[in-house]
Every structure is written in structure tokens, then in C-alpha cells.
Amino acid sequence: MQPTSPAGNSDVRRHNTAIVLAEATRGPGRSRAEIAAATGLAKATVSSLVDRLVAARLLDETGPQSATGRGRRGTALIPSPRGPHGLGVEIGVDYIATCLVDPTGGEHAHRVHPADNRDRAPADVLASVSAAITDAESDAARREAPIGGLAVAVPGLVDHDTGIVRAAPNLNWSDVDVPAALGRQALVDNEANLAAVGELTVGLDTRDFLLVSAEIGVGAGLVLDGQVRRGTNGFSGEIGHACVDAAGPLCSCGARGCLERMAGPAAILADAGVRTRAPLDLAITELVDRLSTGDARAVAAVASAGTRLGLALAGAVNVLDVPVVVLGGGYAKLHPWLAESVAAELTSRVVANRWSPTRVVPSALGAKAAVRGAGQAALHQILGDPDTYIRGILH
User: Fold this and answer.
1) Which of 88-97, 175-184, 269-278 has the lowest mean pLDDT?
2) CA gap 121, 172 in Å, rounded
3) Residues 6 or more apart from 202 whose CB is under 8 A from it?
4) Could you tell me the domains of the chain?
5) Which among 314, 272, 319 has a CA at the least distance from the CA of 291?
6) For residue range 4-18, what is the model confidence (pLDDT) as tens digits?
7) CB 322 within 8 A of CB 208
8) How far is CA 80 from CA 29, 75, 77, 373, 389, in A?
């Protein structure tokens, strides 16, 4: 569709402000003149926009640049750690987690509140989430930093446009309007999608990967060219409900033989003879201890789960052609014992493996990936449209 009217001054400023902030963030330590040269904007325009970004604490001036030759040195600009923080929340089956992420990508005040959310009404869970948010706001106040945005990670199908959780079987949720219940504007997304956002922030050496995350359930986040891909309706990534045995046990989704039911953490723990308990992390730690001592039952359970996980992943890689699979959540801790059997299935089943082998790597963030990614996603909303944020706080 062709534009029906020319862009106004406010639209131009909004666009240019985002460009200037992106350039300053891409190369910390640059001067106004260098940003002007890189963007093609007039020096006076860049200087004016930088002044607004500094006033909003999105950028800091750190003094004259280091001398690199003749000529006048400019003032170096960096993202401000004092600026608006993204507040990330993760609603797990057995916990609620929060953290703050500053404009430099630094993480602060990571908190985990144990809670058995499976048997609680959504309103009660979200009341606990509200209390956790209040605690996080107090943490931000102690840092003298404003909260610039809120994002919530949930283990289920999320309508990304509205924030309504359409189905979260492991929480027994259906059509839960999270922003309305919280009484706040919030970005709400599947926990695996936000875990993938988190992995992007920690220097993974590819911009194309599939993250498969295991908590109580199993989900996947797809990243192509550095962007999370959610599918037409925002419901992609439900790899936990890929069938790995049509005659297998009944899953919470109503189907049989799902990956989540047969190779999720609960299944692995049961096969290994480890009692599943809350928080799940304690049971995974016990399993790792047994694996470290060569416990035959534990090793066999993890290897079997890896074969089933590799079967599901091979189908996904054949369709998506991604070079890297990231094992997240509980799978990250099991990577040393899980990767071999996963890789064996990828090697035998991925058609392109001969020319482009798929790497299997552990998550750098592990159990923190989703809440960290939520905080980063909340911050991205500001970094992508800083002028709207600035107008909200300066006027």
C-alpha cells in the first residue's frame, strides 16, 4: 500500500532518533560527528537528538574521545547504565522470576520466588506476579533507574498482539488476559521465544538457531537473521508436542506420544529413578550428580531422551535449515550427557548434515534465559522507538 500523506516533523524526528540511538549503541564511544557521518544526518540534527537522548538517560557523555590523530576530539557517547530498565518476569510452573536489564544489557536484581502455580487459579498466580513486580520496582528505585517497559514470559500459546495466553496446559490456563489482570501495559510472549531473545544478548556466534527449552514442558524459540520468528499467529515453537511415538502415553495437550511427555524433564527424572519435586532445579541437580558418578540408570534415561529429542529436532532442522541447536532450561544442565545422542539423530536424519553439520550447544544462560530475555525484550521496545519514550517522560 502506498503512503497516503507525507511524513510530518514528529514522524521524521521519531525515525531519526531511533537511527541515532542505534548507531550510538552499535559503536559505543562514538562522537556526534561520527554518528552524523555514519547516518548521513546533518551534524546539527544529530547534536539536537543526542541532547534529548542524554536528557532521557538513554546515552551518557563520557568526556573527550581518546586521541587518535590530529584534530579536535569529540565527546564520546555510550549507552547509559542509569537509563530506563526493562523489567522481565517469567511465570514458571513452580516459580515466578524477575530481573532488570539496563540499556547496556547489564542484568540486575534477579529474583526467583518459589511457588506451585499448577494448582492455583490464574488470578491468584497473577496477584503473586504483581507483588513480584512491586519488589522489582523497589529494586529499580534503589538503583535510581526508571522502569521503561515490562515483558512477561509464559509457558504456553500467547496471542502476541493482545497478551492473552490462549493455552498453557502445564499451568491449566485458558484465555487468560495477562495485561488486564496485571493492570499494566505488558509484552507477553512464550517463554522459549524470550529465552531465545536472551541467548541473542550473550554473544552466541550465530544469528540463526533453534533453542529448545525444557522446564516442566518443552518449547522452542526460532531465530533467523537475529530475529525471533513466531509464525503467522504467534503460536510457533511447540516442539514439545511433536509426536515421537504415536502409541506413546497421553500428553496434557490431549495427543499421544508427544516429545514433552516422553523426553521432557519429568519423563527423564522418572526413567532415571529421581523423584520429581519443586523446585524442579533441585531434582535436575540430583540427576546431574548421578550422571557425574556414572549411574547406569541415569545415563540410560538421558541417552534415551536424547534420541527422542534428536528425532524431533531433526524434523525441525530439515524444514528450517538452521546451523545450531541450543539446549536450554533443564536440557542445558544435561548437555554433556544429552548432546551425543541428540547429535547422532541429527547426523543420521538431517539431509544436509553431510555438507552442513548441525551443532548442538548448551544455553549460556540456562534457567535464567527466559526472564533475562523478557527484560531485554521490554528494553527493545524503548530502543526501537526512543522518541515515544522521551516524549512520555519529558512532556
Assistant:
1) 269-278
2) 9
3) 364, 365
4) 9-79 (1.10.10.10), 85-195+371-394 (3.30.420.40), 204-363 (3.30.420.40)
5) 272
6) 444 456 789 999 999
7) yes
8) 12, 15, 9, 19, 15
